[in-house]
Amino acid sequence: MNKDYPVHGAGLGLKRALMGPLEDQPPAQLDFLEVAPENWIGVGGRYGRKFREFTEQYPFVSHGLSLSIGSPSPLDFDFLQQVKDFLKQHNVRTYSEHLSYCSDDGHMYDLMPIPFTEDAVRYVSDRIRQVQDFLEQRIVMENISYYAAPGQEMAEIDFINAVLEEADCGLLLDVNNVYVNSVNHKYDAVEFLKKLSADRISYIHIAGHYNEADDLIVDTHGADVIDPVWDLLDRTYAQFGVIPTLLERDFNIPPLSELLTEVDQIASFQQKRSALGNEKQFAQSS
What we know:
alpha/beta; TIM Barrel
């Protein structure tokens, strides 16, 4: 099982509103931070200096918003050059993006699902390989939440696995998205996890969502993580071992102390599974 993760422990998405509180009282339990490159490329002045101080203090990963890997439009290599420079400038450990598309002639400001077809596997995988060759590093693609599957010829899990294999890229496993999709599309989330390759997983996202109806969940990143999602995270660790995990919160952002309570929850699951793993190893060696 691959243990060469870009970061370790429990992390948090860095928002500008959190920079002051994080600077005033740097929390010991934060192991890494994540940002969208689009929010920081070219930012100078006071915020640019503050951001540089954070990237010198913490390990960072990045989660992009506008690569649009499934778009019919050509890849934007001018933008990718900016990303490449940003990753190098701030020593960012990995670059992740969404296995989706968000643009054609213009940006749609939403993550649209790529059709689950063999043709789409080949198309998207070729574009991922181009990005990896340009950036000179493996990138990490995230499983997205989706609400319709137009032209579907494959199961979601088979599509994801096929892209990971053909593109030879990593997986950002969003556990909340697995839960959301399992409810919306009526599949077993644990069985979904069992079909993933541990070697492909680079790190994990966990977040809150909104229950529109009993059979419709909307992925919002604007609420606390609920117990079934925490349980699924624990099942993920049981399946794959402890993997670095980041809490996402994009709006309705509470005080830092409340976010850190959820970061502590991630750490407690990690510590529990690490202890269970050590006990199992000790028992096997005795």
